[in-house]
Design goal:
single chain; 49% strand; mainly beta; eleven-stranded parallel β-sheet
């Protein structure tokens, strides 16, 4: 009866900022957050997902597991996966391990990919043995007509 509350599922949307609402400050939540309105500053933080809909305008830093942007975001986004969907706009820094950019998305800023760097594909391995080079004196040119 008076026990601990069960934590919500990470995909359950716990907070919705409606299209006629605005917010300024630090928003922290255990569940997912959907933004339809205006966030005018501060920080949004959740171990789940943040959905920035097409009508939303966000000027804040976002820290989440996944961030999906269809609206406008200005600030730093730190997430495992960031999706910049068609019509979405980001001004700022995106720190992520996985980034999806749909056609029609706009990013002005810095994209920092975290994680283990893949092997450099443009490095040419050194040859096993040096390639012999002949000088003009060493080269023998057969006479014409032979």
């Amino acid at each position: 009866m008076f026990g601990r509350e069960k934590r919500p599922e990470p995909d359950q949307i716990d907070v919705i900022l409606g299209p006629r609402a605005s917010f300024h400050g630090h928003l922290r939540c255990d569940g997912s957050i959907r933004l339809d309105g205006v966030v005018e500053g501060g920080h949004i933080e959740t171990p789940a997902n943040v959905i920035v809909t097409a009508a939303a305008k966000v000027i804040a830093d976002i820290t989440a597991r996944n961030v999906s942007v269809s609206g406008a975001v200005k600030g730093t986004i730190t997430a495992e996966r960031v999706e910049l969907l068609s019509g979405g706009r980001i001004w700022g820094t995106v720190n992520t391990a996985s980034f999806l950019l749909d056609e029609g998305g706009f990013l002005r800023g810095e994209l920092v990919m975290r994680g283990e760097a893949p092997e450099e594909p443009f490095v040419i391995p050194p040859p096993e043995a040096p390639i012999p080079v002949q000088t003009a004196e060493e080269a023998t040119i057969p006479p014409a007509g032979e």
